[in-house]
Sequence to fold (81 residues):
Amino acid sequence: MTEEIKITTLARRIARNVNALDGYRVYLDAEGNQIASTPIDMWLPEWPEGTVYELGVAKGDHLTYEDAQKYIDYGVDAIYH
Fold:
């Protein structure tokens, strides 16, 4: 039996912000608000000030609320494996 994941408001906000910019990497603050974005294949040498989360999805993909919650709880390795 799999453990049920409680989806938080933060996870929903992160997923919405990431999915709104299909094909972009999104830099988010602690509340899940967008600080900056870059094309998915572009990396910044340093995260913009205030960034807590950094995620992106390839064109045509999307981030689920569940995966956003796993990212918050366990880090990026929990969703990108």
